[in-house]
Design brief:
The chain has 14 helices and 9 strands. With about 300 residues, it is of the alpha/beta class. The strands form 3 sheets. The protein has a 4-stranded mixed beta sheet, with helices on both faces. The chain has a 3-stranded antiparallel beta sheet with strand order 1-3-2. Strands 4-5 form a two-stranded antiparallel ribbon. The protein starts with 5 loop residues before the first helix and ends with a helix.
């Protein structure tokens, strides 16, 4: 069963809070509702794209937030809440579903749904309404949009790399490895990569700044042609001739399943970096990209307000 969206969670959560006849926490709700929805351990461990929080716990938390704004739940103390009299009246009518559309009947929720002061016209503030009907939580919507933008950027990077001259691709490999902490200085890495000339090896780079070990590099700037097992066997053979045990095979293309399976069953440690992974690494290490805009997502500092008690 798929993880339910936060609006689907609302009614079961409200019923659970009402039946408990006492305060509950999000942890309590997650434990109880996960059984109702028959979620597996893997589904409970599934994280948001940012990896900051379990997806189901995030959705339960937002379901509670929205119902608090509608006056159906009330906070009792830090991290705990309970059903209100309004919630009891609503549940007595046995609703089939509670979602954002349902909550619009409550003025408090409508006030929450309005984004005040977001635009100005003739010097006067205007209001816009939040997209509270979305099946994703606000944080999920932000992360989903971010992932789409990132994927589009990675696709653009890869297209540029495929159309670049070999010397430029070589420079990208050098600069990326240095940014990732390999190769010592950029000058050291630049002298190493692209200078070896040994069959199946395009360069040698330091594993760390002290040069305690070496990593052998193979870089293929290919278009649609995939890297198969023969190319990996050639690279492995070149490593053995050098009595080397570590290698990185970087390509703008991709690897066949046979190639991936092959490197899992050999003594040498070979890391495969395909075009998609290469583009993502470039984004992570800010190589060939520039920061356009950033947003800080903040949350309440409960410890600060606890001092007021």
């Amino acid at each position: 069963m798929a993880i339910p969206d936060y609006q689907t969670v609302m009614l079961p959560l409200l019923r659970f809070a009402s039946e408990r006849k006492a305060e509950i926490s999000t942890r309590d709700a997650v434990e109880t509702l996960s059984k109702q929805f028959k979620l597996s351990d893997d589904e409970l461990r599934e994280l948001l794209p940012s990896g900051t929080q379990p997806t189901f716990a995030n959705r339960v938390g937002w379901a509670a937030t929205y119902m608090k704004k509608a006056g159906l739940l009330e906070t009792t103390r830090r991290g705990f809440y309970r059903a209100t009299k309004r919630a009891e009246d609503i549940l007595a009518k046995n609703p089939k579903r509670i979602d954002a559309v349902f909550l619009r009947q409550f003025p408090e929720f409508m006030d929450f749904a309005k984004l005040k002061g977001t635009r100005k016209r003739n010097g006067e503030e205007e209001t816009e309404e939040q997209d509270t009907d979305n099946q994703k939580t606000p944080l999920e919507s932000i992360e989903s949009a971010y992932q789409r933008l990132r994927q589009e950027l990675a696709s653009d990077i890869l297209e540029r790399l495929k159309n670049s001259p070999p010397s430029f691709f070589e420079r990208v490999v050098v600069e990326l490895l240095v940014k990732m902490g390999y190769g010592g200085s950029r000058a050291d890495a630049g002298r190493a990569v692209g200078r070896s000339g040994d069959g199946g090896i395009d360069g040698i780079i330091k594993e760390d700044k002290l040069g305690l070990d070496a990593i052998y590099i193979q870089a293929k700037r290919w278009g649609d042609k995939v890297i198969g097992r023969p190319e990996l066997q050639q690279f492995t053979g070149a490593l053995e001739e050098q009595k080397a045990s570590k290698g990185v095979f970087i390509t703008t293309s991709r690897f066949t399943k046979e190639a991936c399976d092959y490197v899992k069953n050999i003594r040498s440690k070979i890391v495969l970096i395909d075009g998609e992974t290469l583009a993502q690494y470039m984004i992570d290490h800010e190589l060939g990209v520039s920061r356009q805009v950033s947003y800080d997502i903040k949350r309440i500092d409960s410890d600060y307000f606890d001092d007021a008690d």
